[in-house]
Each structure stands twice: as structure tokens, then as C-alpha cells.
């Protein structure tokens, strides 16, 4: 294998690792949306992990595309996601708060209902 073949293999491996990492982060956010107790913590889990996961996946796709017009379009898409995802998460959470949905301000699981048979 020559030098260029090794560089192409490295780019493919790094790109695949980035895309799998981004997918794992998005999966962790999905688990957080299912497991967390109230609307606001679920919104936080979804907003943070979706933005980070999408950005890491787009970075992996940019590496796959090389220095082309496609990579420029992917970078612009990443910029749009970086700006709009946190903004929309904040807007939805703010609308919920203004409509009267109050956050849970106590511990999620108290000591009484942990299930310990002590």
C-alpha cells in the first residue's frame, strides 16, 4: 500500500469514527428524552445532544466529501443547525413556561420510593 492509500484509509476511518460518535450522542439524547422526568429536562437532553451529534456527523461527512462544493454546502448546513437548533429549543421551552407549564423543582426519586427493602 502506498502513501496515498494510507491517507485515504485514515480519512475513511476518522470519518467513520466521527459519524458513529455523532450517532451515539444522538442515541444518548433519545434515551434521555425517554428517561428524564419533566418537559424541560427532556428539552435540554434533546437540544444539546441533537446539536452536538448532528455537528459531529456533518464533520465526518465533510471529511468524506473532501475539498469540494459538497463540503462547503455541508459546512453551511452545519452552521444553520448550530444556530437554529438551540434557538428553537429555547423558543419551545419559553412558550411552555409562558403557557403555565412549571418545572419539577424537587428530586426526581425520593428516598422513600427507591425500592430499598432495608
TrEMBL record:
One of its GO terms (molecular function) is sodium:proton antiporter activity. Pfam families: PhaG_MnhG_YufB. Keywords: Membrane, Transmembrane, Transmembrane helix. The chain crosses the membrane at residues 6-31. It comes from the Bacteria. InterPro entries: PhaG_MnhG_YufB. NCBIfam families: CPA3_mnhG_phaG. This is Monovalent cation/H(+) antiporter subunit G. It comes from Alkalicaulis satelles.
Amino acid at each position: 500500500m502506498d502513501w496515498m492509500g494510507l491517507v485515504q484509509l485514515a480519512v475513511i476511518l476518522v470519518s467513520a469514527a466521527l459519524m458513529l460518535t455523532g450517532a451515539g450522542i444522538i442515541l444518548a439524547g433519545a434515551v434521555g428524552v425517554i428517561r428524564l422526568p419533566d418537559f424541560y429536562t427532556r428539552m435540554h437532553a434533546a437540544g444539546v445532544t441533537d446539536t452536538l451529534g448532528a455537528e459531529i456527523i456533518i464533520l465526518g461527512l465533510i471529511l468524506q466529501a473532501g475539498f469540494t462544493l459538497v463540503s462547503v454546502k455541508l459546512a453551511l448546513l452545519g452552521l444553520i443547525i448550530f444556530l437554529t437548533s438551540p434557538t428553537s429549543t429555547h423558543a419551545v421551552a419559553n412558550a411552555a413556561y409562558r403557557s403555565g407549564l412549571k418545572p419539577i423543582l424537587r428530586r426526581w426519586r425520593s428516598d422513600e420510593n427507591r425500592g430499598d427493602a432495608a
